[in-house]
Automatic annotation (TrEMBL):
GO MF annotation, one: iron-sulfur cluster binding
Record key words, sorted: Electron transport, Iron, Iron-sulfur, Metal-binding, Transport
Name under which the protein is recorded: 4Fe-4S ferredoxin
UniProt xrefs under InterPro entries: 4Fe4S_Fe-S-bd (IPR017896), 4Fe4S_Fe_S_CS (IPR017900), Fd_FixX (IPR012206)
KW Cell division (keyword) present: no
PANTHER family reported in the protein's UniProt record: FERREDOXIN-LIKE, FERREDOXIN-LIKE PROTEIN YDIT
Segments forming domain 4Fe-4S ferredoxin-type: 22-53
Length: 100
């Protein structure tokens, strides 16, 4: 049985992303100073990525499953600190589950 990549698995759902109004906002430069980077471990859709060798932090709100995990493990998101916010997508936007 072929093991699907995360992107292949996410492609089984449909996303109507609101590119002008992303529902999760982070400060990728400031994230480099975060000492735990828990988001990179807790996101089931692997939206947060940290490459220490390249000193590069990346995040993509497209593909977010809206589970809320990152909001609870990240004190900056949880407290809506400057440069950080978490909201559900506006009505009709976001993920449209096709499976499960
Ligand atoms: S846990 Fe929050 S502050 Fe830390 S890297 Fe992730 S999004 Fe950035
Ligand atoms: S809400 Fe869930 S799926 Fe979306 S970015 Fe946060 S942890 Fe990942």
């Amino acid at each position: 049985m072929k093991i699907l990549s995360m992107d292949d698995r996410l492609a089984k759902n449909r996303f109507d992303s609101d590119d002008h109004n992303p529902h999760i906002i982070i400060d990728k430069e400031a994230c480099k100073t975060c000492d735990h980077k828990a988001c990179t471990f807790c996101c089931p859709a692997e939206r947060y990525k940290w490459d220490a060798q390249k000193d590069k932090f990346s995040f993509d709100h497209v593909g977010c499953l809206e589970c809320g995990n990152c909001r609870y493990v990240c004190e900056r998101l949880y407290r809506s600190m400057t440069g950080y916010s978490w909201n559900y997508p506006s009505q009709g936007k976001g993920i449209i589950f096709r499976e499960g």
